[in-house]
Amino acid sequence: MALLVGVFLTKTPDLKHESIKEVMRDAVLHESNRISLFGIMEVNPGFISALVVSVSLLLFAAIIRIFVIPRFKIMPGRFQMALEKLVMFFTDFAKENSPHRYGFLSVYIFGAGTYIFCGTVFELLGIQAITTHGSPIALPAPLSDINGAIAMGCLSYLVMLSGGFVESRLKGIGKGLKDFSMPLSMSFRLFGAMLSGVLVTELVYYYKALSFVLPVFIGVLFTLLHALVQTYVLIILTSMTYGELTEPTNKKIKRA
User: Fold this and answer.
1) Which end of the chain has fewer CB atoms at under 10 Å, N or C?
2) pTM of whole model > 0.70?
3) What gap in Å lies between CA 189 and CA 85, rounded to an integer?
């Protein structure tokens, strides 16, 4: 409370050099706030976030595989039980929607779901980076960049087409190409959901009267809600479409 009173009583210069329109425009397009990638080229902050999240998840998975899984016991501990339940959740989800071919599907939705959830929650950490103009910026969620959302949507669509090709060869691909709008809808759904949270948070932080206490609730609630909802939406769309494309075509018609 003393700190809050001190903030209101202390007259600080207005450091905002951008209008709210410019702030929101840059949150979408990242035209001015770019980051140098090892001095090679300038990239969007979302690309740096994607690299950090991907490397962190791969290192965490390697540590679990090398040091944890070999020590699994018949009577599992808390971490082993949580890990097994998480794996079984995605396996059962894939088996329910694609009972004929679910091995690769379960692995993919586990990886994609983990990436979406962790990548969305990543922005809560508030990791700072320096832009090419020398100003600090908090790294956003990877999928708040339209390029990251399109990449995830197209990758999921390619997984669906690969399942159709394995099951029915060219006929399966032709069947999947009928839903050519799916990667666009999945991409813009991810991007729109992530972007809405970014814009609302930027709006709240921009105005001094709203920048106390309120951003904590808005940031956490929006982030967790988007992380859970978008993870579920992507894995259910991918699983259901994959199941349709991998369904055997030579079914025997049962006579009454």
Assistant:
1) C
2) yes
3) 28
